[in-house]
Amino acid sequence: GAFPGLPGAQRYRTVAMERLRLHMPFYVTARGVVLEHSIGYQEFGIQLIDHVLTYLDILDLDEPPQWRAQFEAAKCFLRHVRRPDGSVPLFGDTDDTSVPARVARLMSPPAAGSETCTGLDRDFLDEEFGYASLWGGDSGPTREKTGHTFVAWANFINQAHKHSDELSLLIWHSGHDWLASSGYWPYGERSRLTALDWRGSNAPHFSGEDRLSVRSSRLLAQATGGDVKFLDIQRTIDDGDALRRQIVVISPDLWLVLDSGDTGSGSRAVDTVWTLMPDVSILSRELPGMYRLVAGAGAVMDMALLGDPQFSVSKQLASRDPFAGLMAIRGEIQSSTALVTSNASGGWSATVMQAGAALSDVPQMLQWRGPESWRISIPQKQGGLEIYRQDTVIGLVAPGGQTSVTEMQPGLDRLEENERITQLYLNAAAEFPKFRTILYYRAKISRLIGALALGLAVIMLLAVKRAPGAVRALAVLSIVGWIAAGTWIYYFYLV
Hints:
This protein starts with 8 loop residues before the first helix and ends with a helix. It has eight helices and 27 strands. The chain is of the alpha+beta class.
């Protein structure tokens, strides 16, 4: 290492390399995703790997070729989600939309002819580990794009920095973020666990669902790469009930989000909390379920929320209980506004967002036969647009009556790479037993010791007044008792 003459330096270096070889295969995927459920930790992971590669060079140690490939892939993924204004999505434990200066330097375009990233001008989809980065607007390698949609259904087994946020999405358009999550909530702050819960994201969830519920998510179908993009994602919990979110992005400025529940155990209410960015103001319109969002220097986004007869929507200001309209940026908790939807029957609900003051009336669900057969009308100032799904086809009917269809592709039947990396993680975890958290037991025994000490003080005080001759015996007995209690606590209770 830096001090090779110190005793044990060679052994420490050997141990470090052994553990890195064990850790790296499940730290970054082949597609470049750092498996820590966070764009902020994607950035941090890039810095850590850069340090490792630099130290290997300084120590004149052989660099495993796959580590360099993982490093380049991680930078490529971050480049893909980075917007033209330099910002990144505030997903998971991410405390700022700005990329740290050191990471930005590492991401600087390499020399001509040595570019390792391909497809930066196309959509990014990682079915295995649950991410989609969809671009709308101008195409081409210059990335002069106007809209970005980031969707996550990731839930890797390590649970690193995990929020309850599967099926959530974040939208950036015209230089502004519109939808928010709870961000990187400060550790130790009284609402941190609540902020990590379902209401800290816009993921659909069953009312009252535990943030630690046993669950899995998978992509059922997708169509990416064209002007019409489509994702159909399902999250299933351990009792078999499921939630499904379909996302249609029509380049460059229209989003349709369609949620539905599949509850074999009967009707269960489905809730969604659409928290807006703090710099986005919300104006209610005279039409039911219609809102106009205004951000920054006057950028406008129309938003409409609708659902079946059991659907309801309410506007909620910043609140800790129930949690809504709060997010942490750069360690500071900021207030915003949230639109909270609930569907008592677990039926369908739809959210339509369009950039500009473009929606002229309330969208209508013309037909709902289930999540794979529906048709919705979206009134726009330039005329009505219809979007429909029939089995594996997404269709658009333009105001003039022209119809275009997009054929979707099925999702993977089996997540083989995810299974492989999960097994590598489990193998490594078996070699290093998990640290046993005993804070609860320490707190419990501390309260008991306090009560015993108080009781002993009362007994000694009474003995001094009423039986002075017994004080010495009580003192010896208490010393022996405390020694015995301490031995039991240290060697038995807290082991």
